[in-house]
Each structure stands twice: as structure tokens, then as C-alpha cells.
Design brief:
The protein has 368 residues and is mostly beta strands. Helices cover 4% and strands 31% of the residues. The chain has helices at residues 86-91, 342-350, and strands at 8-10, 72-75, 96-100, 104-107, 112-113, 118-121, 127-131, 134-136, 140-145, 148-152, 160-162, 167-172, 175-179, 184-186, 191-196, 199-201, 207-209, 222-226, 229-231, 239-240, 244-248, 251-253, 260-262, 267-271, 274-276, 284-286, 301-305, 308-310, 334-336, 366-367.
């Protein structure tokens, strides 16, 4: 990645609360693109050293430090299991910063369960996960960075499945496509999660947040999705129940059903995203459902601030419920955002997903 200087737009607690007027997004005071196709790069210094990634997520996943306090663990085998495998490293109970000494495809016969306090860091190699995916179950403090996911098989095959009661998760710079079920599922009280700079393609049910209207305890879910490229995926960018979702500076194009789905009680704050329609024009879809502890069915709530709608994209917004949508500055004070422009669109097309990055240096001894 280039050394870009991103615009950090600060918000202060006490302003822009639900029920108050929201100002139009302020234009950037300055930014320094490193080339004609690049503008803002969030957390642009995270590749300076191995562990500088820890704690640098923006949004709800900002507390994720992964395996910061553990040794480096090296994956030396592309086997599904056994010594030197990814599965063997992920099941260890202690904090680990997991890196790869090999490139290639890991064909999983079952989900790899990641225990707490792990970083799975694909920088320095090109590693593709196929067959099944990664499962984050009742864990905390996990970072997944710079991996490819392609070709998941079986009715339960998600690329990354986060459930139940997992928290402080950051998924960054991954390429995901063509799994049987979902690409990322966040359900069953899993919360404080950021998904950033990922490239989603060739898929139907892309991102699910909240699996069922009977799961009323999912009201705790909070997710930030930013600087992601939804590239011709059919729907669910994301599809939400109950949760609070902040979407900003994402580029979603050529969906074939809808772009963003707001199910029961969801609160979606869509800020400075680019929605470029193909044949289907509906951006925001309100999905009416009945919460398990309520009598009256209802859809979710959406607020759109500074979004760009291209090629006939129709927001289909219902402005009646905007006052019910949370404001991100109630939860974090600063995030990297800029107005949606052609430069931002080009940046998203060329700078998301798996990148050919060197593994940064680390001065802490490693373990096999």
C-alpha cells in the first residue's frame, strides 16, 4: 500500500443524536493521493511493522488486538490438519500472531475454529481457503487479514462465520467469492466487529447480520463496514436484523436483487457510499418481520448521508424512520471518510481484497 494521508473526520459526543438535525457531510479539507486512482487509505501505517495492525481498526471493531501479546506462529503446511497447519495453530489456547511460510490453497474438510486472541495474517504470501471456512465461536480479539476465500461447498459453508457471542473482531483486506452459503455471517450476539477493505464477488447471499427475527438478543450487535468493494454480488451488502450498522465509503455495483436490506429493528447508517446500479435499481430494501418478543411486525431503519447513486440507482428510502437510527459518534469519535467520487471508486476497484504485500518485520521471537 502507498503511504497515503487519509482524511480523519472527527465527530464529538453530544452532537447529531437521533431526533436532532444531521448536517450534510463536510467536504474534506485536504487529502494527498499517491496516484491518480487513489485517495484516502485508512490506517495507512499498519504495514510498517508486524504488530502495528493491532488495535488500528476503525469503528466498532477498534478494540481488536488479535494475537498482539503472543509469539509469532508460522504455518508451514497447506494440509487440512496436523503439524504446521493453520488448523493446528488456530486451536491453540494461547495468544498467537499466525503468519504463513507457504503460499497456496488450503482445502478444508470442515470449519477451522479460531480461538481467542489470534491474528491470522496472510501478508507475505498468497493463501487461499476453500472447501469450508473459518469459524469464530465464543471467542474475542481476532484479526483476519489478507487472505483469499473461494469455492466453499456444502449447505453450511460460509467463508467466515462469526457466532455465537464473539466480540472484538476485525476482518481486513480479504477477497471472498463463490461459497455455497454466505461470505460473512455475523449472528447470535456477536458484536463489535469491523470489516474493511475487502473485495466481495461472484456470490449471492453476501453478508448476513442477524439470522432470524426470533433471535431478539441480537439487539446487541454492532458492526462497521467500510472501504469494501461489493463487485456484482447479488444481495445482502449487508442484510441486517436488529443490529446497528455503520456503512461508509463502500462501493457496491451491479447487484441483482437489492443492495442493502433492513430487517426487523435494524439501524443502518449509510454514509458516503457509492451505489452503482445494473439492471436492478433498488438500493435500500425494507424487509418487514416480527421480532420474537413483539406483536407487530416491522422493518428496520436507514439513514443515508452523502451517498452517491449512479446509473439510475433508486434509494427507495423511507424518511419516516431516520430519527430512530443511531449516530456513530455515540460510539466512536473518529473515522476516515471522504465524499464519494470517481477517484474513490477507482481506489476501491484497485485497492481492496488480497494484496501482494511483504510480511512486515517483527522483533519478537517466533515459535513453530
Amino acid at each position: 500500500m502507498g503511504n497515503l494521508h487519509g482524511l480523519h473526520r472527527s465527530h464529538h459526543a453530544g452532537s447529531n443524536f437521533p431526533g436532532q438535525e444531521f448536517p450534510a457531510p463536510a467536504p474534506p479539507s485536504s487529502f494527498s493521493p499517491s496516484g491518480p486512482n487513489m485517495t484516502v487509505e485508512p490506517y495507512c501505517h499498519v504495514d510498517s511493522s508486524l504488530r502495528s495492525l493491532a488495535g488500528k481498526a476503525e469503528g466498532f471493531g477498534s478494540a481488536a488486538v488479535g494475537g498482539l501479546n503472543g509469539p509469532v506462529c508460522r504455518v508451514t503446511s497447506l494440509a487440512d490438519d496436523g503439524p504446521g497447519s493453520l488448523r493446528e495453530a488456530c486451536r491453540r489456547p494461547e495468544p498467537l500472531w499466525i503468519v504463513f511460510d507457504v503460499s497456496g490453497t488450503i482445502n478444508l474438510l470442515s470449519f477451522v475454529s479460531i480461538s481467542s486472541h489470534k491474528t491470522v495474517d496472510g501478508r507475505g504470501q498468497r493463501v487461499k481457503i476453500t472447501g469450508k471456512g473459518l469459524r469464530l465461536k465464543q471467542c474475542e480479539n481476532v484479526i483476519i487479514c489478507n487472505l483469499e476465500f473461494e469455492g466453499g461447498v456444502g449447505p453450511d459453508a460460509d467463508a467466515i462465520q462469526i457466532k455465537p457471542k464473539s466480540k472484538n473482531i476485525w476482518i481486513d483486506r480479504c477477497s471472498l467469492k463463490n461459497y455455497y452459503d454466505g461470505l460473512i455471517d455475523i449472528t447470535r450476539e456477536s458484536t463489535d466487529i469491523t470489516v474493511s477493505r475487502c473485495h466481495f464477488m461472484n456470490h449471492n447471499k453476501t453478508v448476513l447480520i442477524g439470522a432470524d427475527p426470533s433471535h431478539v438478543t441480537d439487539r446487541c450487535i454492532r458492526v462497521t463496514i467500510h472501504h469494501c468493494f461489493f463487485d456484482g454480488t447479488r444481495q445482502r451488502h449487508p442484510r441486517v436484523r436488529f443490529a446497528k450498522i455503520h456503512l461508509y465509503n463502500n462501493y457496491t455495483r451491479h447487484w441483482s436483487i437489492y443492495a442493502v436490506g433492513a430487517g426487523v429493528e435494524s439501524q443502518i447508517y449509510s454514509q458516503c457510499n457509492i451505489y452503482e446500479a445494473g439492471e436492478k435499481k433498488t438500493v435500500f430494501k425494507y424487509i418487514i418481520e416480527k421480532a420474537g418478543d413483539k406483536e407487530k411486525p416491522e422493518a428496520g431503519f436507514i439513514r443515508s448521508e452523502g451517498d452517491l447513486f449512479l446509473n439510475g440507482a433508486k434509494s427507495c428510502l423511507s424518511h419516516d424512520g431516520e430519527r430512530h437510527v443511531f449516530s456513530p459518534n455515540q460510539h466512536y469519535s473518529e473515522w476516515t471518510v471522504e465524499p464519494p467520487t470517481e477517484k474513490l471508486k477507482n481506489y476501491m476497484k484497485h485497492s481492496t481484497g488480497w494484496r501482494n504485500l511483504p510480511l512486515p518485520p517483527d522483533n519478537i521471537p517466533s515459535t513453530a
